[in-house]
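Re: that backbone. Tokens:
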């Protein structure tokens, strides 16, 4: 079983079937098809308001284009130092903004706190020509540590950002997992909490290649159509991206899959915590967990064919384990049993 990433999981059958149905007959290109229109309506219903929707194929594109729409080349993007946009996008946000700077604001368990952000923005040199100008706050929900921002936490950070003149972006590659944990509405976790633009992920949770930029602040949507085209993400056969997103949202499938993957991560954490010497690095609130295990236990799981990441490099004992919509209870039990047996 592969616990290295939820990207290792297959497509959900309902989404694969939807692509097959979309392949019948002809459809107008570049998002001018009925499926794309239906997806826009689904997002409006999901968030309880009108919003601009731009489908792209990767999370990197969703994040980089969202950031570019809100941040000029001389701007600064404030984020957690471990945020995907800072640590894992190969400079895409910097490239698509034309050179904006990413500024890390540290916080426990992968989350920023409002007081630290306020302090950082207070000494940012706003209006001084020698400094990049604060333009955007980018939050990750669920975070890279597998933790989740509650609506009140997002709202507190957004209030600070807006007070200093920044827009607010959320990297929601695992937004489904965050919402499944919170149990609130999509609106409560986003625009009602002050979010201006959202990267809405689906690829990690059952799709093949489908992400959406969801824009709540209409001023940020004005250039996105052109930015998407220039970036090479305006698919001519957009119906195949739309088909995935349509099936993903239909009947709440996206949350059903996220609830399952979250439950598998919780089950895995509970089993591993019973092992002598095991210690969780962060609370388990979504579908990722970071756990320190005895070397014998790690070696036994690797020998048995289980895949995971030693998070701080070879030889370290901190593992990142990620469950997916397709993770089975027996996969979890097998991993725990293998790790436990090595110490018997």
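Recovered sequence:
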């Amino acid at each position: 079983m592969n616990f290295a990433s939820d990207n290792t999981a297959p497509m959900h059958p309902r989404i694969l079937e939807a692509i097959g149905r979309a392949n019948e007959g002809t459809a107008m290109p570049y998002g001018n098809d009925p499926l794309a229109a239906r997806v826009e309506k689904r997002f409006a219903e999901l968030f309880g308001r009108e919003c601009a929707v731009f489908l792209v194929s990767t999370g990197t594109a969703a994040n980089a284009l969202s950031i570019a729409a809100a941040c000029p080349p001389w701007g600064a993007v404030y984020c957690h130092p471990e945020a995907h946009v800072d640590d894992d996008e190969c400079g895409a946000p910097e490239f698509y903004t034309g050179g904006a700077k990413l500024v890390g604001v540290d916080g426990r368990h992968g989350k920023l706190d409002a007081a630290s952000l306020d302090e950082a923005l207070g000494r940012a040199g706003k209006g001084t020509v020698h400094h990049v100008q604060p333009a955007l706050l980018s939050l990750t929900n669920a975070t890279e540590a597998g933790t989740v921002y509650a609506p009140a936490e997002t709202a507190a950070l957004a209030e600070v950002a807006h007070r200093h003149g920044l827009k607010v972006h959320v990297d929601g590659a695992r937004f489904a997992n965050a919402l499944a944990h919170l149990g609130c509405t999509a609106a409560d976790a986003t625009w009602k909490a002050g979010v201006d633009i959202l990267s809405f992920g689906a690829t990690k949770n059952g799709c093949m290649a489908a992400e959406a930029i969801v824009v709540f602040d209409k001023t940020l949507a004005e250039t996105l159509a052109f930015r998407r085209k220039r970036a090479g993400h305006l698919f001519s056969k957009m119906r195949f991206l739309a088909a995935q997103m349509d099936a993903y949202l239909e009947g709440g499938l996206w949350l059903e899959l996220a609830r399952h993957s979250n439950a598998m991560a919780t089950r895995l954490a509970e089993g591993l915590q019973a092992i002598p010497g095991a210690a969780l690095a962060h609370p388990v609130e979504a579908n990722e967990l970071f756990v320190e295990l005895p070397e014998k236990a790690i070696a036994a799981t690797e020998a048995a064919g289980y895949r995971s990441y030693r998070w701080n490099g070879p030889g370290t004992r901190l593992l990142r384990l990620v469950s997916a919509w397709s993770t089975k209870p027996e996969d979890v039990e097998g991993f725990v049993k293998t790790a436990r047996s090595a110490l018997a």
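The longest strand covers residues 133-140. The radius of gyration is 20 Å.
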